[in-house]
Design goal:
The protein is mainly alpha-helical. Helices cover 61% and strands 12% of the residues. The chain has a single domain, classed as Butyryl-CoA Dehydrogenase, subunit A, domain 3 (Up-down Bundle), CATH 1.20.140. The protein is built from six helices and three strands. A hairpin with a 2-residue loop joins strand 1 and strand 2.
Amino acid sequence: MRISRDLAGRRLSGDPQALLAAGLGVAGAVLAAAGTFMDWFTISIAGVTAPGGSATGWAGRDGRTVVAAAVLAVVASVLVALDTRRLWPKITLLVAGFVTAVIAIAGVVDTSSKAAKVEDEFAIPAGRVAAEIGAGLWLVAVGAVGEFGAGVAARQPAGTRVSRPPRRPGAGSEGAAAR
């Protein structure tokens, strides 16, 4: 409930970069989620798509992961737009974009190997089988770029550090043990 109390009464950030990052994150998430429900690949034999020769991302487990990452990206984008001064929305956008990009790349690689699998399994001559990447997979890839780009564009809150400050001699548990 702390998040809801923190967001109560908040207004959109006045920072154009935060609004750009938030818009980019939402747009990327919408494209990735929409691409999940479109064809990710189509396999045709002699120019004819056989029954079961195409599939959406939702038909496989990867589509659900893309939609989950898109939901997280939308939540993180809203928090960036509301200027919550937290680091985790930026990190969430970066992770969502990375995960979505990995799934898109794996889908492209998998599609390119499907023609060879069909040729081997059904003994069909190589020139007669074609596997094409569907529009849905391309949308997922573009959405991944948007989500990741939003994470890059989101400002790091003032006063937060990604790395630890250098340790002073005698500080920490080693210093306490030596005293």
